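Working notes for the structural subgroup meeting. M.R. asked for a predicted model of this chain before we commit to crystallization trials. I am recording the input and output together here so anyone reviewing the notebook later can reproduce the run.

Input as submitted:
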Amino acid sequence: MFVTTHWSVVLSARRNDTTRAHDALERLCRTYWYPLYAFVRRQGKSKEDAEDLTQEFFARLLQKDYLQAVSREKGRFRTFLLVALKRFLANDWDRSRAQKRGGGRRPLSLDTDLAEKRYRIEPADTLTADRIYERRWALTLIETAMADVRAEYLAAGKPDEFERLKSFLTADRNAIPYAELAASLGQNEGALRVAVHRLRKRFRERFRGEIAHTVASPEDIEAEVRHLMNALAA
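Returned structure, recorded in token form:
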């Protein structure tokens, strides 16, 4: 079952089924483009240059010859992507800068106006480009998992329940005021505990599922969880 996750598809299918590998890689890129944009901005590039460079990087990454260069030794998609981006910036900035702005290939539709708003609220001085990349990668995983769970509750006709309980996803279990919350909602405390437990469990499952899409094997998931939690704590 694990071989169906996105990064493992890229690693296993890139030589024999490049269409499948390309589709999996494109989906990963669409999900995780903002950490790369933030990294480029932290390098001192303008909004316009960061947009052009990010798009050109993806255009080259999604070429078949880039897939051939991927190896299982790269391990995590997060690591591979940052190494590839650094190499691109070091080797290709002059050539990319010589292109007419906006004239390069733009394989992904990126909301860079929203990205710029997000970037402007990043810590101004405390994070290096590498650290902001790691932190934004972790937050993107959380946001994606959260959106997936929200969609599940919406499909089940329970959007209000999700909105009421989502603030307890990251709360310490012993710190949740179940009795007060149940009274305010007019709900049985036991039923509320079950609902919160179910939501937290489902979020953990979706979060770990998103991580699985970015690592090469199931054995990498726990280490990646620890790494990303440390990135957030830092």
